[in-house]
From TrEMBL:
InterPro entries membership: Mito_RNA-Proc/Resp, PPR_rpt, TPR-like_helical_dom_sf
Annotated signal peptide: none
Record-level Gene Ontology MF annotations: mRNA binding
Keyword NAD listed: no
Species of origin: Abrus precatorius (Indian licorice)
Name of the protein described by the UniProt record: Pentatricopeptide repeat-containing protein At2g27800, mitochondrial-like
Residue spans of the PPR repeats: 317-351, 387-421
Family indicated by similarity: Belongs to the PPR family. P subfamily.
This protein's UniProt keywords: Repeat
Keyword Repeat appears in the UniProt entry: yes
Top-level lineage group: Eukaryota
Lineage, uppermost ranks: Eukaryota, Viridiplantae, Streptophyta, Embryophyta, Tracheophyta
Length: 447
């Protein structure tokens, strides 16, 4: 490879010269000329027209080795680092590089302020406007940049001070437009002003920060609300504040370990809420149940379930039962799941499709095929839809008992009741052929 590079530099002065100028032999124009001469050489195999090209001006004969070198560089540009003295990487761009490139692209594509609309909005304000009048003008604007510019312009006016209403309408406009960086700047101004704000305003700020996946900033705003120990302040955290944080923390988990880590934070927040005298509602309690189920602490979820009516004076709803049934079935506790399902139906709730699917799969894996099929028909009567995995699990367990005919009858019954479409029916039939092909061919005549 290094001798190959030395050949490039050895013949560069003799052949890679164009009209006596000191051009870069590996420039774009030189490569275009190389392709021109190579195409001429292909059209003229004898090489008679090669000396008329503008690229090769040497009086000697064409060196075959040099021609191979030139052809190699035109056909295989990956070898160019030896001649270009530059570096090429075949690796994919890193994640940080892609993030920086995306930020630069978004920054370059930012919309510009509509000056005409901004001036029109300014004309609607009286000479000495109040915070309420500014709030009304900002609320009428559809362009978030105009709203932001109005907010900043008003901040520079003498004898004017923003209040909670102007902060509220500006932050809402920016949050809806997903302009989170600009919203963050306005929130910093809000936090810098003491005794301005409201519970609704700070709850909205926390919500938009969680939507932007800025959980740290949301927690900082939450701490700002709790730091106000003055009883006259009306923006202490409420049950709504905690529910926003619960929903944000539960949405961050993608596996059991991550859910376990965030569940510790949810548990601390819940304990802090109860200690502050805030009564949890059904959303808070369901968040605890769901978090415990996702982190595989089903016994803790059952403890919260049994404390709902006794300790917190809040009755469970259908979501509570759905979370618990799914969690119990995931741990193979089918008997407890059936009891909860029966209690759920006694209270007048209808299990969700997820609960039915979990229960049917768990019963089928426990070889309780008849009961699984009964729940499947009950599920269809309640207008709940089963997924493909449920049908396949029940079909597999029916056929494993050695009765291929029952499996085919079950599959045909699904088709007759219009529970599966043609595509799903063919997939289930292919499953039977793959697993029980010989037996199926002998008994049902399938080829």
């Amino acid at each position: 490879m290094f001798s190959f590079a030395r050949i490039c530099f050895k013949y560069r002065g003799a052949y890679f010269r164009r009209n006596g100028s000191n051009e870069n032999p590996c420039s774009t124009n030189s490569f275009l000329q190389i392709f021109t001469n190579l195409s001429a050489f292909n059209d003229d195999p004898c090489g008679k027209s090669l000396h008329r090209g503008r690229f090769f001006h040497h009086s000697q004969k064409l060196d075959p080795l040099l021609f191979l070198v030139t052809a190699s560089y035109t056909q295989f540009p990956v070898l160019a680092p030896f001649c270009f003295n530059s570096h090429y990487s075949t690796k994919a761009p890193s994640r940080s590089y892609r993030r920086r490139a995306r930020k630069r692209l978004l920054k370059s594509c930012k919309p510009t302020l509509n000056q005409a609309q901004f001036q029109l909005a300014l004309s609607q304000l009286p000479p000495r406007f109040t915070a309420e009048e500014l709030c009304d003008v900002i609320a009428q604007q559809h362009d978030p940049l105009v709203c932001l510019e109005l907010f900043h312009w008003a901040s520079q006016q003498p004898r004017f001070r923003h209040d909670a209403s102007t902060f509220h309408v500006t932050i809402k406009k920016l949050g809806v437009a997903k302009m989170y960086q600009e919203m963050d700047d306005v929130v910093n101004q809000l936090l810098a002003v003491p005794f301005i704000g409201s519970e609704e305003l700070f709850n909205m700020v926390i919500y938009y920060f969680t939507e932007a996946r800025k959980l740290t900033r949301a927690v900082n705003v939450f701490k700002h609300m709790k730091s106000r120990r003055n009883l006259n302040c009306c923006f202490r955290p409420s049950v709504r504040t905690y529910n926003i944080l619960f929903a944000a923390l539960l949405s961050r988990g993608s596996n059991t370990y991550i859910n376990h880590v965030y569940m510790e934070t949810i548990r601390c927040l819940f304990r802090q809420m109860v200690n502050d005298g805030i009564k949890p509602d059904i959303f808070s309690l369901n968040s605890m149940v769901k978090g415990y189920v996702l982190s595989l602490h089903v016994n803790d979820a059952l403890r919260i379930f049994h404390q709902m009516g006794v300790v917190y004076d809040c009755q469970p709803n259908s979501l509570t039962y759905d979370y618990l049934i799914h969690g119990l079935c995931a741990q193979g506790r089918t008997k407890n799941a059936k009891e909860l399902c029966q209690e759920m139906k006694t209270r007048g709730f209808i299990p969700s499709s997820k609960s039915y699917n979990s229960l049917i799969n768990s019963l089928a894996l426990d070889r309780e095929i008849e009961e699984a099929v009964n729940y499947l028909w009950e599920m269809t009567d309640k207008k709940r839809s089963a997924d493909f995995i449920t049908y396949r699990t029940v079909l597999d367990e029916i056929c494993r008992r050695g009765t291929i005919q029952e499996g085919m009858r079950f599959l045909q019954e699904l088709q007759e009741k219009d529970l599966v479409d043609g595509h799903a029916y063919r997939k289930l039939l292919y499953v039977l052929e793959d697993d029980y092909g010989n037996s199926l061919s002998r008994t049902m005549g399938i080829h």
